[in-house]
Amino acid sequence: MTTVIEFHDISKFYDDSCIINGLNLKIEKSDFMVIYGSPSCGKSVLLRLLMGIEAPTTGQIFLRGKNITNVTAGERNIGYVPQSFALFPNMTVYDNIGYPLKLMNTPSDKIDSSVKKIAEMLKIEDLLKKYPDKLSGGQKQRVAIARGLIKNTKIFVLDDPLVGLDFKLREKLIDDLSELQESFGFTFVYTTSESQEALSLAKHIAILDQGRIMESNDIEGLYKKPTFLKTIEILGFPGVNKLNGQCLVRSNRLVCKTELFEVLINTEVGKSEQGITDDVVVCIRPENVYFNKLHENNIKLNGNIFMREDLGGEEIIYLDIKGEILTSVLRHQDDPGFENERQSVFINPSDIFIYNKKTGFLVGKGDAMFNGYN
Amino acid sequence: MKKNFSKPLYYTLLWVTSLLFFLPVFWIFLSAFKTKEQVVQIPPDWVFMPTFQNILNMLKDAHFLQYLSNSFFISLTAVTIAILVSFLASYSFSRFKPKGTDFIMFVLLSIRMVPGAATILPMYLMYAFFGLKNTYVGMIFMYTMFSIPFSVWILKGFIDGISTKFDETALVNGGSHFHIMFKVVLPQIKPGIIAAFIFNIIFVWNEFLFNFIVGGNKVTTIPVALATGVVSSQGIEWTYVASLSLVYTLPLIIAIYFCQKYLLVGMTFGTVRGEV
Q: Is B46 part of any domain?
């Protein structure tokens, strides 16, 4: 794969406040890279640096193999789909799409043929004479993409374009975007603070927090080995079970103690040198909380089912275990037919992820070779 | 029941109040088409044979055309320059947010709050010193200066309401800051520009004090002419006053009629930015 975008040790300061702090990230050709982070974590700033609207305080940006840190925005040839699409309200769809070419002083007959070609490709020919206020959300998105496409670029920056749209429309636009990216092999750099949106769209996800990319991988890689707390929080539905815990050293082994159980930590899995701390967050995915014992070293917990949420093909079971709430996902075909509310659940120690509460980094996983002390 | 009764009463009260305020204007308009005797007649004639002689006499007066052209030239030029300068300033305040923006905006508004009488003496001395008295440049410069603070306030409010995503889109596509200002932002704040223009035109068109004190024969505008140029050996020329008032008021009434929706936007800017 070819790297088309590379951020190398990028920092951005506004007065004394650091928004981006030594950020490194590579984006491959034809990738759908979603940069996920909480609101105001610096996602838009990162995109503005990429597009050349602002310059980084330190570091370098490479685009198509060239250092473009000091290249002006107009010369970078990046398609931009901003938040809420930013279609000029005083221009028709035709003028909006042809806008980049007009800025490049392209002859009007060339603009005309290009606009019509793009409009036909995106099936918006009948909208060309309309003004943006007469368009639906989906139509606006297509026009915004057409405006980017007309520049003959394959790299697009999409700055949280679906924010504020209703659920159904978002669902449709997510499908449209994925299809468009696949069909034309575009490289999409997409920011969002919506986890479901990130998961639906991304081939790769980069987790932005505290001005740095904490983790970047494909969805499967992130799912199997989330090395950062925020990663495990966003990946999967329903959300991960989180328990507060503490790390202790017993017989030269690191043990994680929670209100519900104690488990040995396999520190080789995580970044032990920076992760060992007193306070940790213990994460167990709902799909890893079983109602049947699968192995001898499974941790057994007893609790009360206090709510069941039927989602059609599966059911979310909410358990109260000594005051802690744990969720489990139960497929209908696996339904053991609960006779009463009191139930036992089983957790494989190797499915337990333990994170440093302060830094959010993975300390280690539960040790599959030893029983927890429940 | 109470509601049904109060609504007509409310509208009747509104109509009566409006008519009371409109009555002097209506009287002066009617007087423009009366003879000298009819104007001073008590009780006034409401139904009479109109005459256009007053208007014709006024048009024959060499000074009248000068007053009219002065009013148009000074007000339009001053306000146009003020709007242009204010737009550039507002854009900078809104987009670049230089240090002390809030304080500068406060100072700008404070300037507008200072009563004319408090500044007229230093203005007179300054104008006399620089030889700007009774000059078009001096008058235009002064009215531009008075129009800028209010215009900056209105226009900054409108520009703040335009998403910076438009600017970014233009920049990414190779647009310069001038392009963004004049091709991206300006068309979107048209209601604000018109509102600021009309409000300032009303101010400059009606301004009396500064034109009277630091102006002169060459740059006299209609308000000053109305106060100073209507007394003859036969006393006050009421028919001339009425005709001049008619011609003086009509352009503003026409402008306000066609731009009233923008004026509403201007008056409520900050609450309904850019909505027309």
A: no
Query: What is d(CA B216, CA B220) in angstroms, rounded to the nearest whole number?
Result: 6
Closest CA to B214 of B129, B154, B148, B101: B129
Joined tokens for residue A314: 């599966």
Q: Among A225, A257, A272, which residue terminates a domain?
A: A225
Crossing angle of helices B53-60 and B62-91, rounded to 10°: 80
Q: How far is B256 from chain A (nearest CA, A)?
A: 24
**Six token digits for residue A240:** 């991960």
The alpha carbon of residue A80 is apart from the nearest alpha carbon of chain B, in Å, by: 7
Burial classification of residue B148, based on how many CB atoms lie within 10 Å of its CB (0-12 exposed, 13-18 middle, 19 or more buried)? buried
State how far the Cα of A75 lies from the Cα of A65, in Å rounded to an integer: 15
| Domain tally, chain B | 1
Q: Do A104 and A251 fall within a single domain? A: no
pLDDT in tens, A52-98: 999 999 999 999 999 999 999 988 989 888 887 889 999 999 999 99
In A, which residues are within 8 Å of B187 by CB distance? 88, 90
Q: Does A83 reach chain B within 8 Å, measured CB to CB?
A: yes
**Contact between A352 and A265 (Cβ < 8 Å):** no
Token output for B11: 């509208």
Adjacency order of strands within the sheet including A17-28: A17-28, A3-14, A58-63, A66-67
pTM value?
0.77
pLDDT digits (tens, 9 = 90+) for B49-69: 888 888 888 888 888 889 999
Q: Using CA atoms, how far apart are residues A149 and A115, in angstroms rounded to an integer?
A: 10
How far from B155 is each of A201, B109, B141, CA to CA, in Å?
A: 40, 13, 20
How far CA B173 is from CA of A146, A367, B26, in Å, comes to 13, 54, 57
- The sign of the torsion formed by the CA atoms of A191, A197, A201, A203 equals positive
| Residues of chain B under the 50 pLDDT cut | 271-276
3-state secondary structure of A158: strand
Alpha helices for chain B (secondary structure H):
2-31, 36-40, 53-60, 62-91, 101-113, 116-130, 136-160, 164-172, 177-179, 190-206, 209-214, 222-228, 238-267
Q: Return the residue matching tokens 């901003």.
A: A82
Q: Quick check: A260 and A374 in contact, CB under 8 A? A: yes
Domain annotation covers residue B70: yes
Residues of chain B contacting residue A52, judged by C-beta atoms under 8 Å apart:
171-172
List CB contacts of A332: < 8 A, sequence separation 6 or more. A313, A314, A315
The encoded tokens of residue A35 equal 């940069």
A271 and A324 in a common domain = yes
Domain that holds residue A318: 237-366
